[in-house]
Amino acid sequence: MNLKSLYLRDFRNYGEARVEFEPGVNLIVGDNAQGKTNLLEAVSYLGSGRSFRAMKTSEMVRFGADFAEIQGDIFSQERDQSLRFLLFNGSRPRQIFRNGAKKKALGEILGVLPTVLFCPEDLLILKMGAAQRRRFGDTALCQLRPNYDAALTEYNRILEQKSRILKDHFENPAVLAILPEYNTRLCQVGALLISYRARFYEGLGKAAAKYHGQFSGGAEEFALQYKTVSTVGDPFAPVSKLTEDLQNHLERHYRAELETAQCLTGPHKDDFTVSLSGIDLKSYGSQGQTRTAAISLKLAQRELMGREWGEEPVLLLDDVLSELDPGRQDFVLNQIVSGQVFITCCEPGRFTKLGKTIEIRKGSIL
Ligand code: ATP
Ligand code: MG
Ligand 1: does its nearest atom lie under 6 Å from the Cβ of 291? Predict the structure, then answer.
């Protein structure tokens, strides 16, 4: 699958632009604030109907224009296809077209141009707090498994209601009567999440280990471990067993939850760790090791999505090149041989053997 060409009109700082891409690596170079990230945003939006940076659709419409247009020709699902979006400045809803026909729901375009984005903040994912890693895992898993997405939404809903009960019980002890019901449901849905996550992290870890091996010349052994509630002995156990394990942990923390008025136990605290040849990365990893491992994770995510859909998502690498040492830059530019890749960078003179360089200045393609 690959994006063959893109047409932009009044999108961000682009007046009108048309650009052809290579099926391999497309290196997008230009000074700061010229429109490199905007271009990636357009590609990502075209495939998902979602922006990774805009809060409101109208932000993407060029200042002073009434509407923006993004159109792309794509080879996908073994045929030529096209996607087109019209985004309006006011409250008028956007319009979506697939192969010229107007579509009502985003669901009707999903799978045509899946993308995976990697930006500088992602480089630090293994050094940051558990919440960031959970978000990374959840986002990837939701894309892979719609049922997981539904379960996660349900879990968060119950969790919120339980939080409210815990906060309210000091003033109104009667609310505690419904707490057991929420706890039971939380454990059931939580067990489902753990079950999905165990399988997902296993696959992700294996694929990432392969990439990390290529990156580091096989010098380090990458291992990912999924961490969940301590009473869960085996996250691959049947969901009924996981539910019991969660109930056990909950009972032990029942008092503490009431006293602190916080949901202390459950998979909303899950995390994962990465070690290199047995040494924990979060505590001991160097910058280069951390970054390499993070890119390996992202490439692994892309591979899992590709396996699921039969086509590898387009990889969007925004501004990560300058954060890497020359050896790792070479890997990113010249060794990611599968699928289509977009890489933005500010430094002129960068070169890829696997595709072409596109230069951008003030919202124009040179
Ligand atoms: P950097 O190297 O600093 O990351 P970049 O090339 O990625 O730069 P972009 O983030 O793509 O730069 O943004 C380029 C410019 O687009 C910014 O100067 C911004 O002001 C402008 N811009 C953003 N939204 C709009 C809009 N709706 N209309 C016009 N210009 C916009
Ligand atoms: Mg940028």
Answer: no
Alpha carbon distance 229, 183 (integer Å): 15
Q: Which of 8, 9, 13 to mutate to test the pocket of ligand 1 (most atoms within 8 A of CB)?
A: 13
Task: Provide the whole-model pTM.
Answer: 0.88
Question: Is 292 domain-assigned?
Answer: yes
Contacts of 186 (CB under 8 A, 6+ apart): 155, 158, 159, 162, 246, 250, 266
| Residue 267, in any domain of the structure | yes
89 lines ligand 1 (CB under 6 A): no
- Residues (pLDDT < 70) of the chain are none
Question: Token digits for 147?
Answer: 């049922």
The predicted structure's pLDDT at residue 336: 83
Query: For 205-227, how does the pLDDT look when each residue is reduced to its tens digit (9 = 90+)?
Result: 999 999 999 888 888 899 999 99
| CATH label of the domain that carries residue 268 | 1.20.1050.90
| Tally of domains in the chain | 1
Identify whether the C-beta of residue 284 lies closer than 8 Å to the C-beta of residue 276. no
Q: Quick one: which of 159, 166, 175, 178 has its CA closest to 259?
A: 166
For 138-154, letters b (16+ CB in 10 Å) and e give bebbbbbbeebbebbeb
C-beta separation of 253 from 265 below 8 A:
yes
- What backbone phi and psi angles, to 5 degrees, belong to 320? -90, -15
Range of the domain at 193: 122-309
Q: What is the pLDDT of residue 254?
A: 94
The answer to whether 253 and 262 are in contact (CB under 8 A) is no
- 3-class state of residue 336 by DSSP: coil
- Could you tell me if residue 277 is inside a domain? yes
CB under 8 Å to 135, separation ≥6 — which residues? none
Residue 343 lies in a domain: no
